[in-house]
């Protein structure tokens, strides 16, 4: 029996599908029909059904932010899907990593990553990089004259690379100077501009985390040898 034969689609032939990443963060919710489920299983790339356009669509078909299927599950009533995916780029069309970036807090809606949110209170070590990346992507897609990030993207890749080289040099100088606070300050600048470079190529920080996980437990010598092979 195929998967679609086991599922309970609604009267419109649709079933809600929740997509999450490998770490369990919920990215988005959309609908699938039987064709979308079959297409997803056949290609390994997640397809959905658009109720407004009344057509099948592949996630990332225009943006490049595809979702590669890792695992697919359905609930006890077989009327809801849970997809575990490898999300390329961002899941939300606004440039946020997840569509669930707004938080109800003390009677007001807060957007995670924006100034009114205390990022140090909300985000863990890794998550602050994700939040900053989301803000960078939002500034890129919705540029303003006062946005430093937008100005970097407007000036192009060479400008971004130049800033990374500049900040790397300043971090090295700070390390030589022996002032721990200055090292932290310059390293933060280096991290920030590296995230801008990742944003230029639509590479979320998760891709870097995955690469570090791959290397974890390998000696530096072994890792370099694996590259040459």
From TrEMBL:
<dbReference type="InterPro" id="IPR002496">
    <property type="entry name" value="PRib_AMP_CycHydrolase_dom"/>
</dbReference>
<dbReference type="InterPro" id="IPR021130">
    <property type="entry name" value="PRib-ATP_PPHydrolase-like"/>
</dbReference>
<keyword id="KW-0547">Nucleotide-binding</keyword>
<dbReference type="InterPro" id="IPR026660">
    <property type="entry name" value="PRA-CH"/>
</dbReference>
<keyword id="KW-0511">Multifunctional enzyme</keyword>
<keyword id="KW-0028">Amino-acid biosynthesis</keyword>
<feature type="region of interest" description="Phosphoribosyl-ATP pyrophosphohydrolase">
    <location>
        <begin position="129"/>
        <end position="229"/>
    </location>
</feature>
<dbReference type="Pfam" id="PF01502">
    <property type="entry name" value="PRA-CH"/>
</dbReference>
<dbReference type="InterPro" id="IPR038019">
    <property type="entry name" value="PRib_AMP_CycHydrolase_sf"/>
</dbReference>
<keyword id="KW-0378">Hydrolase</keyword>
<comment type="pathway">
    <text>Amino-acid biosynthesis; L-histidine biosynthesis; L-histidine from 5-phospho-alpha-D-ribose 1-diphosphate: step 3/9.</text>
</comment>
<protein>
    <recommendedName>
        <fullName>Histidine biosynthesis bifunctional protein HisIE</fullName>
        <ecNumber>3.5.4.19</ecNumber>
        <ecNumber>3.6.1.31</ecNumber>
    </recommendedName>
</protein>
<dbReference type="Pfam" id="PF01503">
    <property type="entry name" value="PRA-PH"/>
</dbReference>
<comment type="pathway">
    <text>Amino-acid biosynthesis; L-histidine biosynthesis; L-histidine from 5-phospho-alpha-D-ribose 1-diphosphate: step 2/9.</text>
</comment>
<comment type="similarity">
    <text>In the N-terminal section; belongs to the PRA-CH family.</text>
</comment>
<keyword id="KW-0067">ATP-binding</keyword>
<feature type="domain" description="Phosphoribosyl-AMP cyclohydrolase">
    <location>
        <begin position="28"/>
        <end position="101"/>
    </location>
</feature>
<keyword id="KW-0963">Cytoplasm</keyword>
<keyword id="KW-0368">Histidine biosynthesis</keyword>
<comment type="similarity">
    <text>In the C-terminal section; belongs to the PRA-PH family.</text>
</comment>
<dbReference type="InterPro" id="IPR008179">
    <property type="entry name" value="HisE"/>
</dbReference>
<feature type="region of interest" description="Phosphoribosyl-AMP cyclohydrolase">
    <location>
        <begin position="1"/>
        <end position="128"/>
    </location>
</feature>
<dbReference type="InterPro" id="IPR023019">
    <property type="entry name" value="His_synth_HisIE"/>
</dbReference>
